[in-house]
Amino acid sequence: MAKIISPRLARAALLAAAAASLSACAGNKAGRDVAYVARDVETLYAAAQERLDKGNTLQAAALFDEVERQHPYSPWARRAQLMSAFSYYVARDYNKAIQNAQRFLSIHPGNKDAPYAYYLIALSYYEQISDVNRDQKITEQAQTALREVNRRFPQSEYAADARLKLDLVADHLAGKEMEIGRHYQRRGLWLAADLRFRNVIDKFQTTSHTPEALYRLCESSLALGLPAEAVKYAAVLGANYPGSKWYERAYQLVQKHASGVTPS
Q1: What is the pLDDT of residue 37?
Q2: Domain boundary assignment for the chain
Q3: Residue 31: its pLDDT value, please?
Q4: CA angle, 155 as apex, 154 and 159 as ends, to 5°?
Q5: CATH of region 188-257
Q6: In this structure, which topology does domain 7-128 adopt according to CATH?
Q7: Among 101, 125, 146, 221, who pairs with 226 as Cys (CB 3.0-4.6 Å)?
Q8: For the segment 107-166, what is each residue's pLDDT rounded down to a tens digit?
Q9: How far apart are CA 34 and CA 62, in angstroms?
Q10: What sign does the CA torsion over 48, 50, 52, 55 have?
Q11: What's the rounded mean pLDDT across residues 42-66?
Q12: How far apart are CA 256 and CA 47, in angstroms?
């Protein structure tokens, strides 16, 4: 899935750094190597921030990590933990972004930036969602993390975005169920296909895949010798998606194979 960082997201992501505006005293030191060099905390943090501003995200992350390593008890260390997670996220090193954000939450669970840490974890899973032909474990992890953001901080801007992404995640998971169900149909495994399409209706009924799932249930019901069930699904299609191509196909199907049958 392509990653797009909007200006709004960038502003939100950098809120942890907003309070950390620093003087220009780091100007002559920002170009130092990332390798360990003992530095005062302000200079080290400023060097990390400058690398991030210039797009050198992995170097920035390493320097933010150095802030914590060299000055673990400084207030700067707390900010650096979250900024390191954000830097890894921008660099698309999502595993490290998740690890650092989780570490931040384990140490500072009640911090004012905790909502953003949860959101960053959710985004890091979300950006890794693959196409429906591949295993969907990461999609389920994204769903869990997005739900956690919405549950913990329902009034935040992070929750509003999480709810939008949850709709997309549900559609993706429904698409996976449809792909598997169609595969079973092609192999003549009608009962297995029927179960997958039922999953779409039961778990993802608000997604874009519902009309097709209802039609596929008409097909599998007829193949399983259950014409009354097929008529029922066609009726549901007609009531909820009367103008869709899937209703037209279902209507033609039951007219041909279940004409005069009463829905169960």
Answers
A1: 59
A2: 7-128, 188-257
A3: 39
A4: 55
A5: 1.25.40.10
A6: 1.25.40
A7: 221
A8: 999 899 999 999 999 999 999 987 666 778 899 999 999 999 999 999 999 999 999 999
A9: 7
A10: negative
A11: 91
A12: 73
What pLDDT is stored for residue 126 in this prediction?
94
Please tell me the distance from the alpha carbon of residue 241 to that of residue 247, in angstroms, as a whole number: 7
Quick one: how far is CA 50 from the chain centroid? 29
Name the amino acid, one letter, at 198.
Answer: R
- Model confidence, pTM: 0.74
Whole-number pLDDT of residue 134: 72
Q: Residue 56 burial (CB < 10 Å; 0-12/13-18/19+)? A: middle
5-48 pLDDT per residue, tens: 343 444 444 443 333 333 233 333 433 445 555 668 888 899 99
Q: Is there a shared CATH topology between the 7-128 domain and the 188-257 domain?
A: yes
Task: Give the Cα separation of 213 and 159 in Å (integer).
Answer: 30
3-state secondary structure string across the chain: CCCCCCHHHHHHHCHHHHCCCCCHHHCCCCCCCCCCCCCCHHHHHHHHHHHHHCCCHHHHHHHHHHHHHHCCCCHHHHHHHHHHHHHHHHCCCHHHHHHHHHHHHHHCCCCCCHHHHHHHHHHHHHCCCCCCCCCCHHHHHHHHHHHHHHHHCCCCHHHHHHHHHHHHHHHHHHHHHHHHHHHHHHCCCHHHHHHHHHHHHHHCCCCCCHHHHHHHHHHHHHHCCCHHHHHHHHHHHHHHCCCCHHHHHHHHHHHHHCCCCCCC
Contact (Cβ atoms closer than 8 angstroms) between residue 173 and residue 140 = yes
Structure tokens at 130: 């693959």
pLDDT the model gives residue 6: 40
